[in-house]
Design a protein that fits this description.
By secondary structure, the protein is mainly α. The protein has a single domain, classed as Four Helix Bundle (Hemerythrin (Met), subunit A) (Up-down Bundle), CATH 1.20.120. It is about 85% helix and about 0% strand. α2 runs antiparallel to α3. The protein is elongated.
Length: about 160
Amino acid sequence: MLEQCKTPQELWGGVHRTLDTWFEARKQLLVEYSSLCQRLQAQTDGAALKARLRRFCQSLMDYVSAGHFEVYQQLQTEAERYNDKEALVAGRHLYRQLQQCTNTVLDFDERYSQLDQLQSLPQDLSKLGLCLEKRFFIEDSMVNIMHETHREHAA
């Protein structure tokens, strides 16, 4: 998509729409995470908890997939377009840092998207929460380094 853009405004418009959608998905993911934690603490209906957990797993995987297969690629394309070698090196470094968290997310999804055993869910949600906090910080750093630094070029 971005390779076909002809002006910086078209490039930025595509990246901005992607980022806006992705950040909105992040907010929704956090709402679902919080709701899941509250439901777990309330020790309410197990079927409702399992349904909420499955929805959360789907949202989690959608968010992480969008990051890996859309957002990060667009950020890299933008940095390449501006020949920003420092941003590309920093982006690769940050991307490697995301891999550990991605593995944690994949493990969580594998364990809970279809599983009915929830004994270790509180500990696993806590671990996942810390991972997501780190992930969001790294992702924000990527956006700042690989996107925001080009703001003056888009004018």
